[in-house]
Specification:
By secondary structure, the protein is of the alpha+beta class. The protein is about 45% helix and about 15% strand. A seven-stranded mixed beta sheet has the order 2-3-1-4-7-6-5. The mean pLDDT is about 95.
Length: about 250
């Protein structure tokens, strides 16, 4: 889709992303021409990194090794062993006091059951995205926070474990959110380094987010130079007024 290419280019240019924007789309049937994922994935979040390289489809069987991901994404057609795997995982986590029994009900789960998930670079996705994922460092997250606050008219949510819960949170709520990941995602995803967080943006309002991100990226760039020059002047013994610094910026 041409809009997807435009939005992807805007996001990459404005934020200087090291990984292209990744898109997820949910479908009852896999569109013609999209190949299924054919390897073993250790966790559902692993698909996010793979999706930066190519477009592919998944169903519940592809997520079989990730009981938590099957749960949060409400995947249809899960095997009979999935509830057992999920309970075993949750009991182990509760035993470590990583998650408590009363917290489990608060983990976001997609409201509607999903047959297939299509993953890929936003620029190459041949359909509308339900969610767009951005791997962003702190400076990029600064711009994203400011842009999201404008579009959503409120400070964005910052989430912890499990990382995959950010997808149902955004789909169900219609608002962007940041995920700091979880210890599992930070093992499975090379892209989720210590300096990086994950942002999830509703696909149906991507145009608005992109416009605000582009404008705020430009503003942040100009103001960064303003502060750099102001710091230099103070370090050199000056006491510049704001007008002095503005004039130096213009010059």
């Amino acid at each position: 889709m041409s809009n997807n290419k435009t939005w992807a280019a805007q996001l990459e240019e404005s934020l200087q992303l090291s990984l292209p924007p990744v898109a997820l789309a949910f479908a009852d049937e896999v569109p013609a021409g999209i190949r299924p994922y054919e390897e073993a994935a250790p966790a559902g979040c692993y698909f996010w990194q793979e999706a930066a390289q190519r477009v592919f489809s998944t169903s519940a069987k592809d997520h079989e090794l990730c009981a938590i991901g099957v749960h949060t994404h409400n995947l249809a057609g899960a095997s009979a062993s999935q509830p057992v795997e999920l309970m075993t995982a949750l009991e182990a986590m509760q035993g470590l006091d990583y998650v408590r029994e009363e917290e489990v009900a608060g983990i976001p789960v997609l409201a509607d059951s999903v047959q297939h998930t299509i993953y890929g670079p936003l620029a190459d996705l041949p359909m509308a995205a339900d969610v767009v994922l951005l791997f962003a460092q702190a400076q990029q997250s600064l711009i994203l926070t400011e842009a999201v606050a404008r579009v959503d008219e409120g400070i964005p949510l910052a989430m912890g474990r499990p990382a995959c819960a950010v997808v149902p949170q955004v789909v169900n709520g219609g608002r962007a959110a940041m995920s700091l990941g979880c210890c599992g995602a930070r093992v499975y995803l090379d892209a989720l380094s210590d300096e990086v967080a994950l942002w999830a943006i509703p696909g149906d309002r991507l145009d608005g987010y992109c416009k605000e991100i582009s404008g705020l990226a430009e503003s942040n760039g100009i103001l960064t130079v303003f502060h750099q020059r102001r710091r230099e002047d103070v370090a050199a013994g000056g006491r510049p007024t704001v007008q002095d610094s503005l004039e130096r910026l213009a010059g």
